Fold:
Amino acid sequence: MKEINLYTKDKTKIAVNLYENGYETVVIMAPGWFMTKDSKSFKAMSEMFSTYSDVISIDFRGHGRSSGFYTFTGREVLDILTVLQFAHKKYKKIYLAGFSLGASLSIIAASKRKYIDKMIVVSAPSDFDKIENKFWKKEAWIPTFQKFEPERWISIRPAVINSKKIKPIDIIDKINCPTLFLAGEKDPTVCSWHTKLLFDKAVCPKKFELFQNCFHAEDLFIQEPEKFTKVCTDWFFGNN
Structure:
């Protein structure tokens, strides 16, 4: 694995981890708010996918080793489009895996770029303004402290002013790549109805799966690693 830097149209540095194994296919990992490419869970998922394809894992602006400030999907679409452009020049097939707000950004990107071959969105909110974020529930604060990583926490830089946001529910019917929608039954941050609503409105080839007793985004992998791995690898690399 090596880290490389890419630069967006607004001159923001985007750091990515490239797991390069000579495949013609790449999985792009798009973490959500407060998660980075170097988070333990995202490194583990990247290494898992790297047995099937090359992998590019992103630090969105305002996170990790990227520059800038995080705008909660207002400007980050530039980040993911920059990574997609890089991948498009290098790989024959591009798969995109987005988590939480990274899933929102994946949906937005897929509505703009038609060369994404397959996509997985995990705990995708239908509308940023309707995210529940029940931080006081044990399903929220226990995983937060279990995933505590000091270097990651001090690297996060949110923007002071919120930017205008595209609502995934408004553009989900514009994507045409096969998409797997995953949600946690007990997600306290983005309740599962968000992802189910997006699934219901999508017109692309699609599948929805609810992980029983699981929480939010990367928690599905942490809580059910074998199931998560099988479901995702079957979708990307199986004959579906």
The chain has a mean pLDDT of 92.
